[in-house]
């Protein structure tokens, strides 16, 4: 029976090295590319708009605080 070594990625994920180091490296790269694709869309213009709203006190308004709280609870699955 052939032995199987384990290759540990930089984030601690363990990949079985059953095809040799070249294939394991390629699988690790592909796995990390997929994780990057799963990240939400972050655009500088959206960040700038949010920073402006913070500076203007937009998020301190009671109606906005309530809406944010509702959305958080929805994400948690505890709000209808």
What does this structure look like?
With about 80 residues, this protein is mainly α. The protein has two domains: about 5-35, no CATH class; about 45-75, no CATH class. The chain has three helices and two strands; from the N terminus they run ββααα. A two-stranded antiparallel ribbon has the order 1-2. Strand 1 and strand 2 form a beta hairpin.
Q: Could you tell me the mean pLDDT?
A: 79
The stretches of 5 or more residues where confidence is low (pLDDT under 50) are none
Shape: elongated
Main sheet: strands, sense, barrel: 2 strands, antiparallel
In DSSP terms, counting alpha (H) and pi (I) runs of 4 or more, how many helices?
A: 3
Give the distance, in angstroms, between the N- and C-terminal Cα atoms: 55 Å
Rg, please? 22 Å
Strand pairing plus helix content: what structural class?
Answer: mainly alpha
Count of the domains: 2
Strand arrangement across the biggest beta sheet:
1-2
List the helices and strands in order: EEHHH
Helix proportion range: 55-70%
Structure, briefly:
The chain is mostly helical and 80 residues long.
